[in-house]
Amino acid sequence: MRKSLPPGPGISGGVGFLRAAAAGKVLEFLTDLTQRYGDVASFSLGPQRIVFVNDPALIEEILVTRQRAFVRDAGAQLLRELVGEGLLTTDDPAHLERRRIMQPAFHRARVARYGEIVVGETERITRAWRPAAPIDVGAEMAQLTLAAVGAALFGTDLREGAAEIASVLASVTERGGALAALLAFAGPILGPLRAAFPNRASLLFPRERARLEAIVAPLVARERAVGEGDDLLSLMLAARDEGGRGLDDAAIRNEICMLVLAGHETTANALTWTFALLAQHRDIETKLHAEIDAVCGARAPHVDDLARLPFVAHVFDEALRLYPPAPAFARRPTSEIELGGYRIPAGASVFVSPFVMQRDARYFANPQAFVPERWADPTQPKFAFFPFGGGSKMCIGEPFARMEALLAIATIARRFSLQRTDDRPLEIAARGLLKPARPVVLAAVGR
């Protein structure tokens, strides 16, 4: 017997989705969809079938066990227009080859060496904080993560270009939500358009792409002139495929743009949410301070301390659970498949959402509450929590991002209590990456 399509609101759902995208409420739309129609639900967006999956076992099928049956969806097309063909935007076999080239820079021993840089950059930035003066936490964390990713991964200082990079990202984010919804509807037309204009670096973000490349091109030129180093840029310049061919300058610039984008803003957002939550829960902050004091005393934290700072990790994981930087993404099956007992047509957009899944009461008691202690003995299925994705396309920088975030939290919390300056609740700006709707302004009170 032929399987049926997943249940859902049909064409009216597509209209609701577009309205939600325009209002920045896609996450609310997806939450309502799964509550009304179950763990596999669908609707029509013009000729495009959209399927939303909210079940850990099925998410694991999509991202891991049957990952080769899927390719990246409209979000990757959008990102490709900004950072070009690279690790975050390609599919196999190109993706596997590029990952093989870049993976050595993220091995455990190498990541551990980056820790000293992260602590040093955090201390440098916090030295400018005046006692009890309000700070824009998001802006400070962006400055920190840009400096850290530049120094650790590229052996250079990106602080001078930080403001311009941040400006580029803000410009893209502002338009990204609406464009993502449009591509979900009209994504198939982008391929022919790109084929018609093969020499254009970007059809959607030409000025932003040019500005990013102007920042990173000198890094490549300088590294080629200086010679071999021990950072990711040096590894990419030296890497060769089986035929002895290396990456050209355009490919390397694409990967640098990708890593600056992915390795900077996502971690900055996660740290901003973490300190915003701690400011609202002083009892949890007190417990965090006690652990850091017991382990580090009067000295700065070190990467070797992280194994003895479990509550710091629990705090960060709970912030990631509530506010995953990438709240939703999609894959497309290359041929018709069965998923959860339903027929999924080839080319359908199959969405999964860390944000919706990680707030599901079936797997997390009191799911809207900030409870770091829940991570001391987690019981949920593996893919009830997947802020970094999964499978071969899981974020390659996850070890670096986690190390960076935990050391930044420990370094800041050892010296400061970041306290609220008003009583307004946290609100989400859910276009693209998950960011606070307004700046998080906290007072840096010395301890």
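^ that was protein a. below is b, sequence first then the tokens
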Amino acid sequence: MIKKFLCLLMLASVGLPAMSQRFEGGILGGFNGSQVTGDAYDGYHKPGLLAGVYVQTDLAPAVFAGTELKFSQKGSRSHKDAQHPDPDKYIMRLNYVDLPLYMGFRTNDYISVTGGVSFGYLISSVEMNEDGKFPPEDQVAFKNFDMQPFLGFRFDLTDKIKFDLRLAYSVLPIRGAPGSELWYWRQNQFNNVLSTAIYYRLDH
């Protein structure tokens, strides 16, 4: 599934230069810092990759709208700190195909405020502890679909390169509460993602 998605991204990026002058488009890549509200761990300790394509258009001199198609790694993991010097090992890896829809407002020639909603489809998931992947009898499925409103800032570094900073939070649980509290899972779970990405414009 991941290989098919990467092929789709490559095909989309090849077609971007052929768009009309009304639209701007390109490729994007960056990193997620993720956590899952509802588990036993706090903090954006789960790193992940994101990569995809984007297209947008101006609605007014200071207002634009756009969409993206991207692969995005999310999840959660335990973290060693002063209060938990030897935590139980736990890693949750969630791979999504995300389709964000957004609008942006240019505050000046270099900085924009963006906001929108991202719709995600889960393509794979795994949970691990010090013994490896959870056995089948301990696995509890995640929901296939996710919806995350987001707010962010975009910085125009050059005519072709932009830097995007974004915070997104699920409004629907990615997994419901367990029947009884577990050492790694306490209540309804929600993705909480802080992402950074570089956008490279290809249409001119």
